[in-house]
Structures are given as C-alpha cells and as structure tokens.
Amino acid sequence: QSTREALAAALADLAACAKPSNPALAAALDAEKKPAKRQQLEKLASGMFKAALVQPFVDAAVQGDKDVLTASALSWSAYAAAVDPANAADGLVDLAVKAVEMLETAHKAAAELIAKGQPAASDQHNIGACLAGGSEVLAKHHHHVVTPLHPCSHRQETQ
Prior knowledge:
Blueprint: H1 2-17, H2 23-31, H3 35-46, H4 48-63, H5 66-81, H6 88-115, H7 135-146, H8 151-158
C-alpha cells in the first residue's frame, strides 16, 4: 500500500511540475539557449499530464487492474489537491474536463479491444465503465463528483 501511495504521489508531482504556471519549468525553459532542446522540453512538458495521469488510468481500466486504478485515483486526488486555491474554480473545471476526456479514452480503448475480438476487463474489474457510457451518465454523476470538491457549488445549492 505504501508503494501504491508513493507511485500516486510521484505521478501527481510529475504532472504538477509540467504545468505551464510552474516557475521552475519556466526557469528551465528560459535557461535553455538551444531552440531545438527548448522545443523538446516544451513538448515533453505538454505531454506530461497525459503520460503521468491519463495513460496509466486508461491502461489499468482496460485491463481491469484494481491496484493500478487505485494508485491512479490517488494520483488524481493528489493533483486536484494541488490546484491553486486562488484559481480553484477554473482549475477544478479544467481537471473535470480532463477526467471526462480520460474516461472517453478508456471507453474507446476497451471498445477497440472488443472490436478486435480480444477480451476486455471483466465487468467485475472494469471500474469506472459506467462513467464512460455517455454524456447523460456523466451529467448524472457530475453533481456527485464536482459539488463536494468545489466550495462555490455547495454555497449555491444551500442558498
């Protein structure tokens, strides 16, 4: 369990370090004088969120790997906890959009496996499959996922 938590923290840190708003990343890019190397660093940083948080979740969801899914969920939680409080509304909305895109990617990957005749994860292990079932399902679950995280949502409901 401690290994899983360390993996989750490392993945969240990788994704957070690659944010354009990270001063350390900006300093590293500014310090790089070679245009090709700078472009390579920018490309690496722009793909880090997907590599650290999206792809591990998609792979685990398609394979039905509960341990990796748990670590991935912890990574997403750690990343969400690091959202700048000054821009929490925008940051959480952006994160929710990324989560929906990730679930769509997982759904498409599972559908491709099935189309190729390969077995997808069993229903017992296919965690999150219900969320990739379409916009109606996502809209239904949006209230339960976003409202507890977003303080403004809660205030609006209670008024």
